[in-house]
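Q: Predict the bound structure with S-adenosylmethionine.
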Amino acid sequence: MFWTVQIALLICILMLFYLLSWFWPPDSPWAPWWTTNKEVARVMCRLVKMKKGDVMYDLGSGEGDALIVAAKEFGATGVGIEIDPLRVWQSNFKIKQSKLQDKILIIKKNFFQVDLSNATVVFAYLVPKALKNLKNKFLTELKPGARVVCYRYTIDYLPLIAEDKEQKIYIYEIPKKSNKKIVVSSKGKQKRVNKKRDL
Ligand SMILES: C[S@@+](CC[C@H](N)C(=O)[O-])C[C@H]1O[C@@H](n2cnc3c(N)ncnc32)[C@H](O)[C@@H]1O
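A: Predicted complex:
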């Protein structure tokens, strides 16, 4: 009897956390359990022109479905960064089932602490606050020409190059090289200054 009550209580608590996860902002430990369905992931891959050779980073990779579609159907390699151990476990399970272990790596970490410079495509299904906080990271770490895909929420600090309004998919690009460079101050302000010329 004692154990039945304990187990029932535990199940109730877990269910409560699951429900809470739908309402909490995704940069909290109880991030929403919202996922990108495979059909949306396909539209996103087509719109961003995902191809073999692309390295897709999914910031907050959840259950890994978007990475699986990009690797399996479009030939990309993927890196998922996920803070929630349960979702890391779930995504690794799905990746193993799809036999994509050699194409997708899931890192259990806070994505603010992971270097993004190898990415050619970054996927971010995150709330506006998290997207805003990623500004410096995108501007300083991503290579010119790298694309940033936002789902549902937009950003205003990168040029928009494609969108699917119906599906709410927005593609941005890190500006190509110019004789100017972007310098980000400690307060997060952006300034374009002339690059020094090599002698
Ligand atoms: C809205 S879900 C998107 C999941 C997945 N990208 C998809 O589209 O199916 C956001 C995910 O970001 C994760 N997350 C939020 N903040 C994070 C952080 N700072 N570092 C790593 N993961 C984070 C959450 O745990 C959650 O799984």
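A: The mean pLDDT is 88.
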